[in-house]
Amino acid sequence: MLERRRKVPRDAVHHPLFARFYARVSVMSDLRSGVAAHRAELLSGLSGRVIEIGAGNGLNFAYYPSAVSEVVAIEPERSLRRLAVKAGLDAGVPVDVVPGAAEALPVKSEAFDAAVVSLVLCSVRDVPRALSEIRRVLRPGGELRFFEHGRGEGRVMVTVQRALDRTVWPLLFGGCHTARDPLAGIVAAGFDIGAHRRLSVPERGPRLPSSPCVLGVARRPPEETGPSGG
Predict the structure, then answer these.
(1) Tens digits of per-residue pLDDT, 143-182?
(2) What phi, psi does 84 have (nearest 5°)?
(3) Quick check: 180 and 121 in contact, CB under 8 A?
(4) Under a CB-based contact definition with an 8 Å cutoff, are residues 141 and 219 in contact?
(5) Where is the Methyltransferase type domain (predicted)?
(6) Could you tell me the pTM of the whole model?
């Protein structure tokens, strides 16, 4: 089912220092900031073949329901990919971890029942192209499950986010941008937005530039036929 649709470097992203930092912090965040519960909500009710883009160290794998027949997990960063492979071995569903970039997914068109993005759209280099690729690989009517952080509400928060995105934040956090609007991007890519909710991570305590999040589901329109995306 995998294919080299476009020629992409094997390691399209390489942030070894950030990868080590993220591998530690993400596990603590799951336990202390309620992220684990959000992952479970994100993946609840999924079935069939699923593609996860930007799987990181594989923290989502434990929450896939048994109705999922296969997960193809795309991870461009070498160090995180190795951790994801280990996590996949302990998952309750079959997981195949492969290298690749969100902007050029190495899979066939309309091959998946659902796609998952989890705290990844903040760091992809070309959000419209990545979402176009996701739409391409979903069958018509297929679901996009998303749990993303992005632009907050209020002038002060947005000003701080934009200032950080222009300076140190992407350099320190593996290309992450805090002021992107994931929901608007998903709509612009041609998805139909379904149930979703805004939340803050962590829910209590000081609000960070990365705290505003949105969790929900979108669909590739069912009337579409033929491959989507460029």
Answers:
(1) 999 999 999 999 999 999 999 999 999 988 888 999 999 9
(2) -65, -40
(3) yes
(4) yes
(5) 52-145
(6) 0.87
